[in-house]
Amino acid sequence: MTDQAANRADYCYRHPDRQSFILCQRCGRTVCTECQTPAAVGVHCPECVREQRAAYTANRRASGAASGLTVARRRFAMLDQKATVVIIAVSVVIWLLDQITGRFFTTWFAYYTPLVGTQPWRIVTGLFVHSSILHIAFNMFAVYIFGRILENLLGTWRFLALYFLAGLGGDVAVSFLTPGTPVVGASGAIFGLFAAFFIIQRSLGYNAVQLLVVMGLNLLVGFLPGTNISWQAHVGGIVIGFLTGLVFARTRNVKQRGLQIGLLVAEAVVLLGAIAAAYVAIGGYGLLR
Length: 289
Description:
CATH class of the largest domain: Mainly Alpha
Strand order of the largest sheet: 1-2
Shape: globular
Largest sheet: 2 strands, antiparallel
CATH architecture of the largest domain: Up-down Bundle
Distance between the termini: 67 Å
Number of domains: 2
Helix content: 55-70%
Strand content: under 5%
Oligomer: single chain
Number of helices: 12
CATH superfamily of the largest domain: Rhomboid-like
Radius of gyration: 21 Å
Structural class: mainly alpha
């Protein structure tokens, strides 16, 4: 028996060669991004959509109203890897504007623990600022490769939750280990993607040791003298990536959606609380004076 046959529940029921982590909210079948249709809650498979449309059309005809569904609107809603594209686009635009404005965005967007109390946007915006063309090139290449894979596996909103939670994990590690150092870049979030992908692959029955080796080697680079890399952010991102990947793996069933959302929200609350605690511990803005 092949691995695919043994794990056929992890593949799209209409495309057996496409692995997916997305389940239809109504019937629980696995669907790929091509087959999913976004709904008010989760996504629906083609069969469930057909049933809904048939019932909708029948009701509209019975009431004498015209159908309002259009193919164009559906196709737009089903575009793949929307979040990955937006993250890369925003990061590139901010980097270009940063060069034009003489590092204005680095000054005001970089993550800096002593300022998060008065400028809380830095908790998120630091992920979109990069120090050099090589910095943004390597980071966006990693987002492009792993972002597309994970957004297909998890769906857009789970992927975004993972990305920003891992970024917060990096912020927390920096806040406690090097609170007086400004940090820029998406590396913490990217290492979180690595870690979560490892956990998800393992949960699906695949050997992901090579990914663990690659992640370890990249982490070691941050410890080399003169690299000016925040290994603290990498470690924080990895820890939260592992944790979030575990949440996704253990709450995959549609019936556990509420539990999954609750655990993700709890992660965010704890991480934000930790950043606030670090800010208070160092005396906030007073550290600069």
